[in-house]
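Page 42, continued from yesterday. The earlier attempt failed because a stray header line got pasted into the input along with the sequence. Redoing it now with the clean sequence only.
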Amino acid sequence: MSWIKGRPLTALAALALALRVLCAAVTEVRPLFPDFYYTDAVRIHGYALNALEDVRAGRAPVINGTLGERVQTLISLGFYRIFGPRPFTVKLFNAFLGALGVAAFAWALSMAFPEPTALAAGLLMAVWPSHIFYTSQNLKEAPVGLLAYAALGAALAAGFDAKASRPRAATFALGAGAALLGAGFYRSYVMICLGAALLIALGLSVKRPVQFSPGLTVAALAAALALYPSVARGLLDSFHSATLGATDQGRVQSTLIPLTYDDHDSSVYRPTSPEGISRFRSARQASDRLWATTKANRDIGTQIYPNETFKTWGDVLLYLPKGAFAVLFMPLPGLYPLDGKLGRYASAGENLILLALAALAAAGFLRGPKTPARLGLLAFFAAMTLGASLLEFDLGSAGRHKLLYLPMLFPFAAGEALRLLGREEPR
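This time it went through. Structure tokens are written below.
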């Protein structure tokens, strides 16, 4: 017990790792859900197998897909070359990254909240069943979470610690920029939203005495955002993709320009107008339905308002609240058909708890101090939720992606819960 009190972040990471390794082992022996829950993991496995065949034949490996898929495939290929084509080894690696991400999350929060609040929020993430499941599979959730929270923590450490020495502040600032850039390699919109939120937080701190660290942190974050397009294109070129054709070029473009989609018939929709958003959503949902029918012989029953259309920006504004509620909290019992499916029941149970946490978070925010760092967390949550409410097309992917940004509410909820229990420490 004294060891846990002396090294709380290590203990938190150990708990998170144990739960994720256990889940990886269980799902390796007996998948908990239908095959379509593992679609992305199966695709990465297939890409890695093809690349492994190239390597064993003495050829440069051909790795296709979006930039994030290529990075994940390259990691899988590295493990397959050492241990053979065994997905379990990559699942264990992702479990380790997921556990580090939990610790990085709590560490980042400790610079904006009292330590008990930060640790309680980290514990919520550590035991969150969906987080355990998705960060123990061969998916992008574990690495992108670790990189994003590392960027968040390093930026807060560099920009808001007035006692930090210049070398320490410079190290954290450069680390924040590097981690933010790394997160962008997996999901560019995460880099954009998190970078903007951190810049807002640093901008709100201008009334504080001028420090060396905020300016350097701003420069490092801005440099990461500015360098991303050229660095990402250079990475794509480095994959030696000899079969890069017109279709793949479209997929590459969608990685570098988040609001672009190639529907594979040469029609590119840009969701920059109400009608464009409608066409974008319709094309993506139609493409997903076609894939599910032809590749998996199933119907998609969890698309998010597939018949919604927008003619004016007023229509978009009216849609945002229900779209945001859907991506954050659906399915819910009584509001969404569960159809006797295990996955929906599990999600509905989780979402009831998440809804209660959101209510606590609202109370905690209204009651607590509105510091720049805390407002930065909410800016990241708001930016990601805004984009998700319009550009998430299915509850399955929405539930997976919210693992990154919905936890921004956890420290506010944890702080309010500790206050109600009379255990919160003053800051």
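Notes: Confidence is low (pLDDT under 50) at residues 240-268.
Reminder to self: strip header lines before submitting.
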